[in-house]
Give the backbone structure.
Amino acid sequence: MAYKLDAKTPAGELAQKWSNHKAAIKVVSPANKRKLDIIVVGTGLGGASAAASLGELGYNVKIFCISDSPRRAHSIAAQGGINAAKNYQNDNDSVYRLFYDTIKGGDYRAREANVYRLAEVSNLIIDQCVAQGVPFAREYGGLLANRSFGGAQVSRTFYARGQTGQQLLLGAYAALNKEIAAGSVKSYPRHEMLDVVIENGEACGIIARNLVTGELERHGAHAVVIATGGYGNVFFLSTNAMASNGSAAFQCYRKGAGFANPCFTQIHPTCIPVHGTQQSKLTLMSESLRNDGRIWVPKKMEDVEAIRKGTKLPSDIAEEDRDYYLERRYPAFGNLVPRDVASRAAKERCDAGYGVNETGLAVFLDFKTAIERLGKDTIKQRYGNLFDMYEEITDVNPYEQPMQIFPAVHYTMGGIWVDYNLMTTIPGLYAIGEANFSDHGANRLGASALMQGLADGYFVLPYTIGDYLAKKIQAPKVKTDTAAFDEAEKGVQARIDRLFAIKGNQSVDDIHKRLGLIMWDNVGMARTKESLEKAIVEIQALRKEFYADLKLVGTADSFNVELEKALRLEDFLELGELMARDALNREESCGGHFRSEHQTEDGEALRHDDKFAYAAVWEYKGIDNVPEMSIENLDYEFVHRAQRNYKD
Amino acid sequence: MNFTLKIWRQRDAKSQGAFETYKVENISADTSFLEMMDILNNNLIHEGKEPVAFDHDCREGICGMCSMHINGHAHGPSQAVTTCQMYMRKFKDGSTITIEPWRSAAFPVIRDLVVDRSAYDKILQAGGFISVRTNSVPDGNAIPIPKADADESMDAAACVGCGACAATCKNGSAMLFVAARVSSLAKLPQGKVEGARRAKSMVAKMDELGFGNCTNTGACQAQCPKQVSIAHIARLNREFLAAKLQD
């Protein structure tokens, strides 16, 4: 049965929707909040800010994270910054402009009302973080500094050196610590959610595995919030942390929550290229580097070959022999085009044979011009830690020779479908931050992930969850000795037992690497009908192989990293197929989803608004069955959809 | 490159641990230290043995999860990097590498190289925050902060909470960790309001959790992957004394 999707978008003028909605939704009195329990899974920017804010409000909150501390969530690795429409630079920025840039950057595949609300609360985030003691970069006058990011012509990105995610997360983590100390939040580190429990159609708790002891635990609550980030690690190699996974979101999908636009994957243009076969992850070089770095490949094939052989250094190539291809193709935005555009342009040059390393899969990011203009000290001050990191990894000094970069999987715009209240198709189950699908459409702009995580956690969910919980004020504590919990726990136990019983020959990593290759080759930066159909067949075969030939060592009742990885891979093996199916259905190109059959004469993404101006929402039908697709039409009331233009 | 690895294996907190010796071969110089560990673990799995448990996550030096003592140094012989940012080109081909968990009474071993660092969370819960509610704050530009102060606050805030300082200190002191947080907030006007209470309660919690005293050896600073300076310990001491004098 298809979903009846009601986005619950409030009526009225765009700028009034959120205010009207807040006025219309129910609130819960302090005395009743004390009686209500909320589970938050994940402690990145979304989860930590939500849990802290909900704790402050007086709810009883439990938080779960797979790391040893909430502070280690992968939000911490975000480098460049966070957007807000403060207009502190007096460059004619506004809430509307941030909204418009985000909608356009997402190639018109996000929900208007959600994106406007995101832009609207962005300014509050900066205020909040400053008050928490986040040491944002300052100008000499003591005021907050900004820099530019891709997809915008204003300077609206706030930053703390190249460690903005870390500092914002430490702010949210501090707020969380304040609530843990006050007793309103209870923390469960080294715990992994392995199932969501549904009773009478509503979310009522989770099954979590204590990763130290291996015990399965039952936790009941009146609402469950999923804040577990994205699923980019389906590709094995990505910029995500090693333990980042899509499993919590996938359990929700298995239990009936709709999964929206799974194929929308962001390939980040500036990552350190892959070397050899022993690599475990890819390292991002912040988009902020594109403020001052210029991207190029040689114009002449002989220079490309000389660089590959090592007979010429990149710095030997004369200015007139360099192809600054982003500046050439996109004069208005130059090196600061959105990520999907920059990634595809790099691929185009490398496909044409101009890749500058031995694999042919790298382009240069060069600071020569900026160093000449601003001096080495200024560049060091702006990007010192990133330059050091680059040198540590590659043994090349980027002050002297350009960096080599290549696109890599970075972020997933798709995720659990949510309505305007951030509630999934299952009542009482919420999804926030990267885990949901709502705000970035088909491509996320740089410095907007942090914005969304904190917007959802600090300023949206704490209000909207009250509208649901107001109906629960008479509800007793959730009992965990019910049939629903019994069944969920048994299901998890059966999954674990099944994996141990296989006793095959391939390790989790052996299989995961193969899945990653299938995904990258067929569901990566450019996709075709043939590649996607091939991917589906290959993933299905690999899944069979997984269930027949997995080698899992150790025991379930102890600290067992291999078991954790095996359970996550099991979900990735289904999620990868879902991504391919979604990409196959979407016969258009938009944002990060590029179907080679659908491009303009200039090789830009060609949307088909008449057919695909919707979010594709998938409903689980069993492991080997084709999921059912429902659609949420993305009706644009305020913005005119246009072919994205970053040229003029 | 080929290496001999002497690695601490310990089943759980209650079991006795011991070193075991392994060989890894054909490792590329561009392989990171943890990728080398991945290769070892994949080999062990294929031999039907349990892999070496170690903490790691972001593999770009920011999450603070990785935590190995390598050849007697926290995060290995390189300066100013975490274990995950170290590459095998830093080691001599054919050499023996000794790998241990953090050794600190306050960080009990969970398994192999994995330790329990929840004591650091508890110290921060004792006061490592500014008590502001969501949405109850002034405009971000309402309080100008001199750039030098913001920069110094950021220097201290670079701490990743990995535990190398306490694991390195011969007294098992967590002073650099505590100082990093206290100092980062003390440099900002927003943090001054609760400064006295913060310094006292965090120091008291640190003592309660079994961390040792600071004797200014500076070993913590030398091993800190983020080069947090012991000048912050001096600031913590000033904050702490001033708070005590107010009592």
